[in-house]
Amino acid sequence: MTAPALAERIAGVVRRAAGGKEGPIPLHEPCFAGSEWNFVRECLDSGWVSSVGSFVDRFERALEDFTGAPHAVAVVNGTAALHLCLLLAGVEPGDEVLIPALSFVATANAVAYCGAVPHFVDSEISTLGVDPVKLARYLEEIALPSPGGCRNRMSGRPIRALVPMHTFGHPADLQGLSELCGRFGLALVEDAAESLGSRYRGAHTGTFGLLGAVSFNGNKIVTTGGGGAILTGDEALARRARHLSTTAKLPHRWAFRHDAVGFNYRLPNLNAALGVAQMEELPAFLSAKRRLAAYYREEFATLAGASFFAAPEGCQSNYWLNALLLAPELAGLRDRLLDELNDRGIMARPAWEPLHRLPPYLDAPRMELSTAEGLADRIINIPSSPALGLALERSTPVNHGEQGEQP
Ligand SMILES: *Cc1c(COP(=O)(O)O)cnc(C)c1O
Predict the structure, then answer these.
(1) Which of 39, 243, 320, 374 is the most buried (most CB within 10 A)?
(2) pLDDT tens across 278-296, in order?
């Protein structure tokens, strides 16, 4: 299989999903087909465009209803959400936090913002998320029990938390990871930035851990332009999140008093107005994205040299970004294939450069990372916009019983 032949085959499948449309097909474009204009206009007319206003409350209630999280706190972006989650989980300067090497840089940066040290862990092929079995074996070797938790016997630093990430929307093995956190006394904080709409054994991702972070960046499944949210079942933590995200200001009619070093992290009402409209469309986006994934899965079933990545058993994925996994012997063709696809107007990209290879994190502690490195060499993401799935639903309606569950 040559790169041009593989690219030709993949490009044909993607273009058919787009109804044969010519011109570039983006990786993931937002869809504003509902009440976006009305709500944004209503927000402007109200004069309340900043961090106070009814759309912020409505957006938070919509997130709580949809995810089942008892509390959602809207903030300026997913990175800020992760930063606050880690602070609220008790991460302190000099602590270590376990995070996957195969993730977006924000996961590591949020740890660094706390003055803590990211400690990179490996992923598993079945979920693309943190491998609980391999991590348990590693911690048995390097972790020393200490009161209320554990310590890294090499560095002497406390290992405070584990931050699994649900890669491209596919849930990590939350059961295995929760058990591991219990056993080693780690706080579980989920990076659910990519997984709004994804469920693990029926429960929404981001609601298993002490806290979870979601993102509403422009390329995520729903967007507020920029935005994020903290999910938690703990009322005191939610209250603290709200306080810290609004400069830790004590409520008063006119006095400006602050009782901690807070952050200006609250989501503006203007962005929340967009978010309320997008949340109304989320069920339709999810169904469209699962339809697109089912189409890709079927079309690529006979593809030689690459396989379509399907959600792990027992999970419902939002299929935020669809991924093809190149056969190991074709990993060397990846960059050529990406060029060939982009030349054909198909916006494809690799996964992230593994975080332990980035300049700010070259010296960070890590376990053996061969699976994450192998995956990073072999993954390519292909166009995944809701619009593609909506076009498919219009052109080839499927029976509703099949839809959604099982791409
Ligand atoms: C998008 C994303 C974030 C951060 O979200 P922003 O809203 O862009 O700050 C964090 N982690 C992962 C894995 C992401 O994909």
Answers:
(1) 320
(2) 999 999 999 999 999 999 9
